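Record pair follows.
FIRST:
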Amino acid sequence: MRKLILTALLGSLLHQAGAQQIKPNKYGLLVLGTHAQYTQLVKKDSSQQLVDLETFIPHIRKDVRYATTNNFTHQQLYTNTKIYLRRPAAEKLKAVQAALNKKGYTLLIYDAYRPYRVTEAMFRIVPNDLYAADPRKGSGHNRGVAVDLSMADLKTGKPVAMPTDFDDFTKKAHENYVPSDPTVTANRKLLRETMKQHGFKGSSTEWWHFYLPDYKKYPLMDILSPQG
C-alpha cells in the first residue's frame, strides 16, 4: 500500500512539473532533464529543492573524486565540485554533522546528487549493481537523497581511518567485514550509527553509502545543477 501511495504521489508531482511532455527513456523511466521542469517541481513541493551542502551545513568538507580522474572510472565525470541534496536529506545530514561535531569530527563528502547521465557512464564501466547503480532502475543519487561520505577531524580536516578508501570494491568495504584495527571499527560504527539515528539507511557493500528509505518519492533527474 505504501509503495502505491508513493508511486501515485510521485506521478502527481511529475505531472505538475510538466513531465507529461517527457518521453520515457529506453528503460521506460521518466527522468527530469531540464531546469524548467525542476523549478516547476520545487514550486509545487519545496521538499524537492536541491540544497547546496557547503552553504547549508557548517564546517562540512568535501573530496569530490568524480570531478577528478582519481576515481574507479579513471575519468572526470563532473565539471565542478558542487554538492547538493534534496532539502529533507540535507536537513538530516545537518543534524548528523551537529552530532559528530560534538565528538570532534566533521563530515567529509565524496558524492551527493548525481545526474542520471553519470550513472549511465559508471554502469558502462562497472556493470555490476552491487557497486554501480543500474540505470534501468536509477539511483538514490539521481534522486538527490543518497550521499557517499566519511568523517574527518574537525580541527585538522584529516580523514579518519576507515576499512578502505572510497569506492573500494572489495569485501573490506562490506558492512560485515571485521577490521583488524579497533579504531577503524569504532570509526565505521560511529558514522553508521549516527547516520542511522538521523534517518539514513546504509549499504551492506559500501561503508560510505547512505540514503533516505523513502527515496522513491523523489524523481530521477538529469540536470547539472539547480541553477540550470
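SECOND:
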Amino acid sequence: MDCERCRISISARLDGEAEAAPAADVDAHLDQCARCRAYQADAGLLTRNLRVRLVTDTPDLVGPVLARAERPDRRRTALRSALALVAVAQILLGTFQLLGLSGAHGHAHGGMAAHLFNESTAWNLAIGVGMLWAAWRDRTAGGVLPVLGAFVAVLAGFSVHDLIAGTATLARVGSHALLLAGLGLLVAVHRRHRGDGDPAPAQTGGDGWSRIGPGEPPEVAENGPHLRPTAHHRAA
C-alpha cells in the first residue's frame, strides 16, 4: 500500500467515513511507515482541536435584540379600533334609515323626495363601509380621506344654510357629528400610518434602475421593471 492511499484512509477513519482500503492493510502499513504514523498523529490532534474547544464567554444579546424588536403601536391600534366603532355606528345608522327605524330621518314618499332619501341612505352605508375598510387596512385611509372630507365640507355648508333658513333643526344637524368624528379619526389613522418610517425609495436613474455601488446586490426601483433584461448592459 502506498502512503497516499493510507493517508486517505486515515482521514476517512477520523471523519467516521468508509476507508479507501481495508483497515487491516492500513494498520499493517502504519506499523512499517513512520511518515504515515506522524501524519496520523498530526491529523488526530487537529481533529480533536477542531471538535473539542474550551468554553468561552459569549455576550448576552437578549437585551439588545429585544430593545430593537418592533413593538406593537398601541396608539395606532386604539385609533383603528375607534374608527371601526364609528364605522359600525355609521353603518347601523344607514341600516336604521333604510328600515325606517330612525326617527331623525324617517321615510320619504313619492318622486324626488324618495330618490333623495335613497341617495342619503346609500351615502351613509357607503361612508360607513369605507371607514370600516380604512380601519382594517389603514394604508387605504389616504384614499378614503378625500371623499369623506369633501362630503363633510359640503354637508357642513348645507347644514349651516338650513339652520339659518329654519329648514332643519339643531338635533337633525347634530346627527352628523358621527361623520365629523369619523373624519377626525381617519386623519389620525392616516397620519399614524405615514409616521411608521417606511424606507426611502432607492435612487434611480432615468431608465428606472436603481443606482448601486460596487459589491451591492442589484435592486429595482419601485416603479421600474421587476426583472432585469438579460441584454441590458451599462456603459463602463
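COMMENT: The two ends are 58 Å apart (CA to CA).
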